Amino acid sequence: MKIIIAEDEARARRGLKSLIGSISDNYEVVAEASDGRQALELMQIVKPDVVFTDLKMPYMDGMDLIRGAQAAELNAKYVLVTAYEEFEVARQAIGLGVFDYLVKPITYDEIKEVLERLEEDCACGGKEKKAQGKLKEKYPDAHPLVRKVLSFIEKDYATKISQKELAENLGVSQEYLCYLFNKDVGETFSKFLKNYRIEMAKRLLLSGGMTKDEIPYCVGFSDPKYFNKVFREVTQKSVAEFLNENGE
């Protein structure tokens, strides 16, 4: 997969290139640009599969780069790299067909997840398809902080998760994160996490890959009795009733 990075800060460009290169040899940064105009010229030459572009750049910003490339009928996927305060602009850019956006500072896991989805999308010829289990895709208009939390839940639901620690790591108060999550997702963080863990438990129960006794620990519960209680609260059935109704 050929990639162009458009970013006016040299240090940020180097950091992003290093992250991408550390994930897989399948991802090749074929060109770098310090402004949107240069990036557009490079796109016409190297025909990249993916362009990572900052929003704010001299001469031509990220939005104008995407519009210019689309006008020139250049076929590429775009990932916006944006600062927190630029969220509203980033959300508008989604309307231009941007594949995703990442909020600085970018982590290894975020880049890896986006690249894997991009690779899958490119392999399918760009056809529209819904990836199961991608929480961020279920809430495309959620605040960037909420999207980060959703990604964390998806990867680490089996571990002990503290909303307070998440908020601290994201640099906001627990109250503010709670407000954002409830507003964008439609339920509290704790209720969402509980429901998500039970949904994962249901999949494991039906897959038959492990015993019923192992499953509570694999989805983040340390007490099987409490797991059974929560399972009934969420599904209105016991584990045995659920299995009986689903063919076991």
Write up what this structure looks like.
This protein is of the alpha/beta class and 248 residues long. Helix content is 56%, strand content 10%. It is built from 13 helices and 5 strands. It has helices spanning 10-23, 36-46, 62-71, 87-94, 108-123, 135-138, 144-156, 163-170, 174-185, 189-207, 215-218, 224-235, 239-245, and strands at residues 2-6, 28-33, 50-54, 77-82, 100-103. Strands 2-1-3-4-5 form a 5-stranded parallel beta sheet, sandwiched between helices. Helix 4 links the parallel strand 4 and strand 5 (100-103). Residues 124-133 have low confidence and may be disordered.
TL;DR?
With 248 residues, this protein is α/β, with parallel strands linked by helices. 56% of the residues lie in helices and 10% in strands.
